[in-house]
Write a structure and sequence with these properties.
By secondary structure, the chain is of the alpha+beta class. The protein has helices spanning 5-17, 22-29, 33-40, 49-74, 109-119, and strands spanning 76-87, 93-105. It folds into two domains: 1-74; 75-121, no CATH class. A hairpin with a 5-residue loop joins β1 (76-87) and β2. 8% of the residues are buried.
Amino acid sequence: MKYNHEYHDPWAWSLAIKGATAEEIAEAFGVSKRTVIRWTWNSDGTLTSFGEALQSGREAADARVVKKLFERCMGYDFEEEQRIIEVGKDGTNKIGSIKTVKKHVPPDTMAIMYWLNNRSRRTGEWSQRQEVDVSIGTEEREVFIYLPAKESDGDE
């Protein structure tokens, strides 16, 4: 398939914003992953218009995910419609009334932990992985490890 920026760029953006991988994009276009990569980059290492469309779509998708993760961290309110079903005298069901109910989703502890762990990766303040430095100053020291002697079989 020959690349056509007027056709492929908008389609690439629409696939990228839905979270499609390079393999999935290649499959949608009926080309190899290598072809998608070739369409993405110029020979000087800059993005082509196709690559810019992919990058723009991915950034928009990432921004939506970050927003939702932030909402899970902070908690959020939403409205839900509840439909009241009434049973008629003849035994048939019908929707009687619809009322809107406000609901609250409390902050999610795991989302908070994930957010803090990733946001403070450089400082390690909220990291779940602890690094321990066991060095003693800057001078080098020899370490001797003593292992038990091999038991003899009586043959020696």
